[in-house]
Amino acid sequence: MLTPPSMRLILLVLSLLAAWPVQAAPPELLASLDALHARRAEASALKELEAALKKELQASPEDYELIWRSSRLMTWQGDVAEDSRLKKVLGRQAWDMCERGVKVAPDRVECHYFAAVGIGTYSQAVGIMKALGEGLEGKFNERLDAAIRINPDFDLGAPLVVKGRYHYELPWPKRDLTESTKLLEKATGKFPQNLRAHYYLAETLLAADKAGKAKESIAKVTQGSGAYDPAEAKLVQGRAKKVEAKIEEELK
User: Fold this and answer.
1) Dihedral, CA atoms, 142, 144, 150, 151, nearest 10 degrees?
2) How many beta carbons lie within 10 A of that of residue 29, not counting itself?
3) What is the chain's pLDDT, residue by residue, as a tens digit (252 residues)?
4) Structural domain count, the chain
5) Where a domain ends, among 110, 131, 148?
6) Which residue positions does the secretion signal occupy (predicted)?
7) Model-wide pTM > 0.85
């Protein structure tokens, strides 16, 4: 039996509404959350951001804008965590949070990206070999490749940076320094202000026995401006000191 035109129209509208991301948070709230995130290196701002996201998500658990911002915060906390147990928990939470987000808005880049970063954080905490044994590589690449396909320029080329780092982090014989270099050079070429991209490139070049080029890359980190993201820049520049010392030792 044929569906009447009016019914077909109703069904079309319902399907479009079902696919439309739920966004209850007003723009001014999102702007406030982003401003707090920019100050996340400050303990007071970090605490306020955590509390605000928790409160808003309790009221609107399917709000995509809140979901991906919550995962973004968790990946940051996982990155700076020194305790592997805490890193594991935060990585898993960030991953799970953005799996929810992918279901809400499968065509948006943010949750594909932060789910991948969450998986990566979790994998670092449990150990790369164990993560490979758990089959996480496929899940990681599924999310990250989707992010690259949707918008490789997101957050100053972050999907490309993470993919480049992935090829560096893998154990032999899966490690691919050539591909890592290619992706990281692509990111630094388009987004020279991204200090993490230069930092990762320096480590890749050093591992590839190209200490001279690695020195050039690490100098762009230590001498670069952190205006684009002060918290991120401070973190990366602090980590760069050890790499800089290794490069100088290699060049002796």
Assistant:
1) -170
2) 15
3) 445 656 565 555 445 444 444 457 899 999 999 999 999 999 999 999 999 999 999 999 999 999 999 999 999 999 999 999 999 999 999 999 999 999 999 999 999 999 999 999 999 999 988 888 888 999 999 999 999 999 999 999 999 999 999 999 999 899 999 999 999 999 999 999 999 999 999 999 999 999 999 999 999 999 999 999 999 999 999 999 999 999 999 998
4) 2
5) 148
6) 1-24
7) yes
